[in-house]
Amino acid sequence: xxxxxxxxxxxxxxxxxxxxxxxxPVRADVARxxxxxxxxxxxxxxxxxxxxxxxxxxxxxxxxxxxxxLVGLLVPIRESxxxxxxxxxxxxxxxxxxxxxxxxxxxxxxxxxxAVMAATAALAQGLTAGVVIVVALATFSLGRxxxxxxxxxxxxxxxxxxxxxxxxxxxxxxxxxxxxxxxxAIRVLGxxxxxxxxxxxxxxxGAALWVGVAxxxxxxxxxxxxxxxxxxxxxxxxxxxAVQTFRLLRDDRSFRHFVTVRGLLLxxxxxxxxxxxxxxxxxxxxxxxLGGYVIASGVAALxxxxxxxxLADWSSRKLMTFGAAIASxxxxxxxxxxxxxxxxxxxxxxxxxxxxxxxxxxxTHTGIRVGRKTYVIDMAEGDLRTTYVAVSNSAMGLxxxxxxxxxxxxxxxxxxWTLVFLAALGLVGVxxxxxxxxxxxx
Length: 442
Fold this sequence. Notes:
With 442 residues, this protein is mainly alpha-helical. It has helices at residues 3-11, 16-20, 24-28, 30-50, 56-64, 68-71, 74-80, 86-93, 99-123, 126-158, 164-190, 196-217, 226-231, 238-251, 253-264, 267-281, 286-338, 348-379, 382-413, 415-433. The longest helix is centred in the last third of the chain and has 53 residues, at 286-338.
């Protein structure tokens, strides 16, 4: 057994039965590819922490004096921008023989976008800085879109079922270490001074991480898609693809059910920024406050990453639904506590309540995210898997804009109303998730 095999076997509970079903060249590279996927995904998740639309960027906007209206665009652009174009881009990606090349290009686009954000943070102020960063974030999301479509296919081609969830979980755990380190550094070096220059250096580090992602992923040994090679000279029929997308959602009941449930499980994805808003409204200020939330997200990733990977391979369906149920309960409890007479979020105890809730929501989101990634990979094989990923993400982009719009309108009445709405949405998703078919081997 080679050192690579030993390391991979120590990290991942291997499924020898499914590995034996792989073609010989693919089976020989499972350990090597698995470790590279873990490393690339860990670097990617670490980069996400430096450009987090729920924590880092809102704090940066405050430091730069960006109008509050632009702050509300960060999460919708970051999330929907990486999802909406996927169905449109899939016909082009299906013509690429090695999907890892699409991922590498997407990673470099993200690196360049984060570098632009860093330069803007160091050189610009006010509305101009806000607009440039929003445009750079939209470009970043497009690069993430390319990575999202291609990564599921590469993982499905190179890692057998039964090990894929653990790959995602290990990457999340590794990113947790980086997030904790970043959070501690922000608390120690940042203090109470919201210095945009310091956050610019954080973004520089993020750009470097994305370059590392591209370099590591380029070394994955992926089998060529000969069907893509045969069709690369044929014209792209966009109308046919649009019709196929519509028919897939209309006729594939299991897939349509998954997309619907996924849309209802947005509770853990959309609620953390509103928790941060509640905290800042209560008096939390300075980079030390930001550091607490970054540390909380890192600890959540560290604790939940590997455990979520194992649970996802056992039952990704149950992991998603139970995670959403817990997240909804956490939100309802938080709103109840904040509504108590005499509650003061500016005290040490009040701050601990908010950071604790943020930690628990991030922990449950880790499980939900790993679970739904593993679920969609295990639902199908080959190009159908790529199609599932693209269509579900494009549909989610639309759902996210709708739910985000409703949440923003409710926030006018009060952030608490928005959180209650998201919790209720999550509980409906729990009921729907219980009816999803089981696709995991566990």
